[in-house]
């Protein structure tokens, strides 16, 4: 049985942990708000209307690809591509190639950063593995001008961060939506989580702050996870209406 992502891949371990996924979302939420192509996410109105719901939708697709047999994963990639093409046709315009690459690059960086924050430092070959998995995803989506290796990705990632991000009216509005949906306390947790995982340039554009108040809490969370109290904490972090989705974030690797 052939899987899109090999069973021994570090990507499976990273995306099997709900808490790691939440940090991947936190970092992506910050960068999405700054992306010069964020107006595309506003075109359908679904992102600003329900940011948390969009998280679980995106996570669902990503995990379907990561944990499925190869032919099932390729079908999911085709559906994602078709959804984007429909949006492009409705708007009578094309999403820029660099915008697609930006999303792919976010998945690579925040997968690495979030896992290292909560688990352990990754070996160089593990980082190469993360790059290879998501780069293959980009190839099957038909993306152009993708990096050929991890070292080239590091260079392109730096360039994209400097060229494709800006604090705009969409940034301000999207953060207002985050705060509206999450409430004050959860919103503060989101900001503190972002400080821990986003690149310095992203932090500077958003003025998130340099001293993460949440950092001491990471150790406490690791202890809570060891004592099996972490699910309760995750339920407190996200709105109650997403309780089932939160419970589904953790994947038992032995079953996939």
Structure notes:
With about 260 residues, the protein is mostly helical. It has one domain (about 10-255). The protein has 14 helices and no strands. It has helices at about 10-15, 20-35, 40-45, 45-50, 50-65, 70-90, 95-120, 125-140, 150-165, 170-195, 200-205, 215-225, 230-235, 245. Helix 2 (about 20-35) packs antiparallel against helix 7 (about 95-120). The longest helix is centred in the last third of the chain and has 29 residues, at about 170-195. The radius of gyration is 18 Å and the shape is globular. The mean pLDDT is about 85.
What sort of overall outline do the alpha carbons produce when their principal axes are compared?
globular
Alpha-carbon distance between the two ends: 11 Å
Mean pLDDT: 86
Low-confidence stretches: none
Largest sheet: none
Give me the secondary-structure category: mainly alpha
What proportion strand? under 5%
Please give the number of β-strands.
0
Over the alpha carbons, how many angstroms does the gyration radius reach? Answer: 18 Å
Individual helix count: 14
Counting structural domains, the number is: 1
Please estimate the helix content: over 70%
Order of helices and strands: HHHHHHHHHHHHHH
